[in-house]
Amino acid sequence: MTPGSSKWLSGRGKAIAPYVFILPPLAYLAVFMFWPLARQMWLSLTDTRLTNPNGGSFVGLENYQWLFDDPEFYTTLNVTVLYAAVTVVLGVALGTISALAINRPFPGRPLARAIMLFGWAVPNVAASLIWLWMYNERSGVFNDMLASLGLDRVSWLTSTHMAFSSIVAVTVWQVAPFVMLVVLAALQSVPDEVREAARVDGADALSVFRAVTLPHILPSLQLVSLLVAVWSIRRFDIIYLLTGGGPIGSTSTLVVKIRQTAFESHELGVASAYGAIGLILALLVAFVHFVTDRRRQKWMAQ
Amino acid sequence: MTSTIALSIFRYVLIAALVAFAGFPIYWMASTALSANSELYSTGQVPWPQLQKLPELISAMAGVPIGRWLFNTFLIACGTTVLSLLLGSLAGYALSRFRFRGRGLVGFLLFMTQVVPEALILVPLYAMFITLGLLNNLMGLVLANVGFSLPVAAFILKSAMDSIPYEIEESAIIDNCPRFGILSMIVLPLIMPSVAAAAVIAFFAGWNEFLFASTFLMDRSLWPTSVGLASFIGQYETPLSAVMGAALLFSVPAIVFFLLIQRQIVAGLTAGAVKG
Fold it and tell me: A125 touching B, CB under 8 A?
């Protein structure tokens, strides 16, 4: 079904009809998405403050200058990129392992599968509350367990060397189930006979995985990596509620920084400059996906 | 033979560990809610849910305006769903049924919205909503949400429409049926499962949303559950069991729907990232 092979439109109607449909949604996005995006690019060149968000005068690249001179900016950039990279690697790895583990039937599989989706299905704010309580330093369950083993209590969210890992753990808990579902769907396309034949020929599990399974799920892994990376760059609630970007900026990603610079420091211009960097980062990820996808398709076509 | 047994034992241990990791936080949420202990912060908690504490939990939750919050959440989620489906089906139909100048650009713009962090348009929307009087207004919040869920709905509906033959529409067109009628009376009923998936995704995008809601709504009476629950963080007057009870009430609908139509949701969320 190719769009537009449509013989059923002719004359003037043909020219106008598609625009009648596409205009309302496009106009909507223009007002509530693209205009604000353009506006935020403009704001990044002004000294606008929250107290007068529609005033503010042009200051050129001053905000960017300020950003590039600020060591906190580099911390934020590092944390954002590291956070996206680590959550992609761990989330995709754990999701794939989960999918492989429950792909074949076993007693209780539907229940196990349902429970394994919890982290993905729970609203972010509810997830934040429960993890905040489990991470609680004085009487949270993790420190209670450590204490009963005779170990020292850990400052899960308030020490600079633990906070980042704690946030990553919650994120992986949330994204791995989604990866699992995507990989499970892809595993349906792996021909069982080929896998069995390889096994009969004496190939061990790992080489069967590498030679038969992996090529089949690779496109899905690539797609889901893109999604997880983009979500990590966009993710706000979990980080903001668990650590607020602290301690000492060790979990401060770009989006947390944007919100804080705008609504706590009232510096809309600087916040928008952070936003511009965030947009570049997100587009970069999308571009990388686009290019590798092209290359993979070419490679598969050969 | 021993190695296959070892392998299957390893597999079950692995599955048990994965289930424990995934399920424990939810179990703990329920068990905290049902411990109904106001001293949780100092004494720790009993590790199993105590059903006999349910009346205590209910009376502790009387201090939480959870009914009001869930009602606001429901309004926001419904508004987001209706508007996203309305505009998303128009965009999906145009992309699926017509080849027109600028079609590639439209597809690209829709894809773009999927990589844009919400925080990026937070400040400009805030400024715009002040001017339009949409600040501190549920409608404003819905308008902001739809920008992000409309493209998702469009992608889901487009790929569903691609899979139905247009011969079905053809006879209606010959009969000079208006095209909006064709879309709503013929095409959409044929792709009901996808419409449902798009609706659930949009609904829970609105249900879960926190960033816009916490920025645009100042009146406590307008707060949705996400903002209300977040306000408990760092304050210790409300018993933790009541907080967790409220969080549970907020989570259950999302869990139920996500589990029910997981396949369609995954297909929907990945549709936007795949071209063609």
Answer: yes
